[in-house]
Amino acid sequence: MRERLLIRDKHLAAFGYTLSEFLINVTSHDTHACINVLLESTTQSTTRLLNDLSSGTFDVESILEVIIPLSNQEMLTVQDSYMEEYNRSLETVVLNSEMDTAVKRLLGSLLLGMRAESKVVSISQINKDVNRILEGDDIDVQSVLAIRSLEDINTIYEEFTLSNSDLTEFLFDQSEDIYIMGYVKIVSYGRSTTDYWAAVFNRLIHVTPSSSNHFTRILVQRAEIDLNGITQRYQELYGRSLEDDVINNYSGPCKEQAITTINHQFIHA
Length: 269
Prior knowledge:
mainly alpha; 18 helices
């Protein structure tokens, strides 16, 4: 259990009411909302973030960024949590949205949580997958990228790039549709999780609406996993520190909390 959640749970056990219930009476509305992000488990945080991103304007790019890194078990756990908290399934939300059919199909495939979680594909199958991506249609590409392990996707990228051209550039050249961006993000995550999250942070810092806690939620989640590596890579990729970029360019909520989180990354309890 994380230290912050241990504090939350001990407060409830000691006083009979939640820390959030106490703080709502002694902090401003904005401060209370920021602190609540710290009091969420990873599953709660992901569940609520997906609900925020799918309410009103369906933020496909952000939803893809959230669900692509989930393991099969995490995917199932989040979907159970979503059903329990909102009394509807994520799949139903996706199907009832006004998105393009190809996007719905991609999201639906990812929500199934059927990705192989270890390297299991032979080199001959890798070559077949490369040809399916090169010569096949959208369904062929999706059938490869939605179920292959991250290790295999990295190998597919390397083999495709060696024999043809850069796979991500090839995908972008096929179409400007949003589902292609989803394919590119899957490949990017398979190649480097650190680079993936650095790119997500860079995008969110510059586009997060003032009313969204999207960036801070993900920042808190990564602080307990790999934020140190992400901050180092961020500096290498963008020529400036993550902290400086937040200070100078982030206009969303919980800015001070974000800076503190970057400087004082959480530890395991």
